[in-house]
Design the sequence.
């Protein structure tokens, strides 16, 4: 018997109690019992985002919330700057271009975050810039960007520019304070730090962003955030929501609030430190110079074929990790510590990693990774 374990940065494992809650009989979304769920969810989402603004929930993946943020705050012909440091930063550009906007790209090497002054320099070259699009945790590279410093630098230069953040693998895993950091739009998805299956996304707008939304002339219908906000203010949804996912979300948010958001961030920090320490002790090279606490991107050892490595760790040990994307396909693997994980989950991951590496002929010292990871937890 092989127990299957998921270590991908989305979907992430779903707690058993949430799965059981979602298995209960279906309810109708326009009746009082669902309104009670909405009340709880909407209040706890504000806590999760660290904002006093309402957080809207869309029945879509995180990409839907990304598109909504573009379609609702910009107008035809607008200029927007975006940072491309991986597949998901690249996605910002693709969405902007799909709406015919002037998308100004800042390219940074995968694994290296962009510094604030480079963003401001690009805005200076494009004085008509209306918005800046950032990725807090770049999932394709396991890289964290200092969005707080960038938002501060951008708003000091031009306080009218809207700062939009893809927080899809950072919200619920890394310190993220929407109001305190003066972020204008933050989006996330359900199958990441929120610990439920894919299918819903969340988006919050600042007052600055809502002012821009009032002037937007881009087409939208299903992703009309003004309609979503109008419904939110009435404790409702504009369209049929993913009822079962809302039921699971209520439980997930209660779990996160009970743990305390600062404790959630600290837990992810420790799990990430343990994985990185264990990998380094095995002589493995990490991709990112600024690693995200959501996941760790690790180079496949020289001489090891990724397909063979991945086949053994999945088929023999039941561990599912994520591979590389784009030009990193076959060169890295990505280990998630995002969402429903604890210390022993990381020890299991390290044990399977050591045994797999040994089987594919990598030159490692068995037990070194486990020892290094364990030392992080017993400090």
Sequence:
């Amino acid at each position: 018997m092989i127990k299957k374990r998921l270590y991908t940065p989305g979907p992430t494992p779903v707690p058993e109690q949430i799965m059981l809650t979602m298995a209960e009989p279906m309810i109708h979304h326009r009746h009082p019992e669902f309104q009670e769920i909405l009340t709880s969810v909407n209040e706890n989402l504000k806590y999760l985002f660290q904002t006093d603004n309402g957080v809207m929930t869309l029945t879509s993946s995180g990409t839907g919330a990304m598109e909504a943020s573009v379609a609702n705050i910009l107008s035809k012909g607008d200029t927007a700057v975006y940072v491309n440091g991986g597949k998901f930063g690249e996605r910002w550009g693709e969405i902007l271009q799909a709406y015919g906007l002037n998308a100004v790209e800042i390219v940074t090497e995968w694994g290296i975050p962009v510094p604030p002054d480079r963003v401001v320099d690009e805005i200076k070259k494009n004085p008509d810039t209306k918005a800046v699009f950032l990725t807090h945790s770049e999932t394709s590279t396991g890289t964290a960007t200092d969005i707080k410093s960038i938002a501060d630098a951008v708003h000091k230069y031009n306080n009218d520019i809207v700062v939009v953040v893809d927080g899809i693998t950072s919200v619920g895993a890394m310190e993220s304070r929407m109001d305190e950091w003066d972020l204008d739009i933050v989006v996330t998805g359900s199958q990441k730090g929120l610990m439920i299956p894919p299918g819903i996304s969340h988006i919050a707008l600042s007052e600055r962003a809502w002012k821009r939304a009032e002037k937007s002339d881009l087409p939208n219908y299903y992703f009309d955030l003004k309609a979503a906000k109008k419904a939110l203010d009435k404790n409702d949804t504009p369209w049929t929501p993913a009822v079962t996912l809302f039921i699971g979300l209520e439980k997930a948010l209660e779990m996160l609030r009970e743990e305390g958001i600062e404790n959630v961030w600290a837990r992810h920090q420790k799990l990430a430190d343990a994985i990185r320490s264990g990998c380094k002790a095995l002589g493995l090279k990490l991709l990112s110079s600024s690693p995200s606490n959501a996941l760790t991107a690790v180079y496949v050892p020289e001489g090891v074929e990724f397909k063979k490595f991945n086949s053994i760790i999945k088929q023999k040990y039941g561990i599912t990790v994520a591979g590389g994307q784009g030009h990193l396909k076959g060169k890295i693997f990505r280990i998630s510590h995002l969402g429903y994980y604890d210390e022993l989950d990381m020890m299991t991951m390290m044990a399977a990693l050591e045994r797999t590496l040994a089987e594919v002929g990598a030159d490692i010292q068995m037990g070194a990774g486990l020892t290094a990871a364990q030392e992080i937890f017993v400090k």
Summary: The chain has 13 helices and 13 strands. The chain has a mean pLDDT of 98.
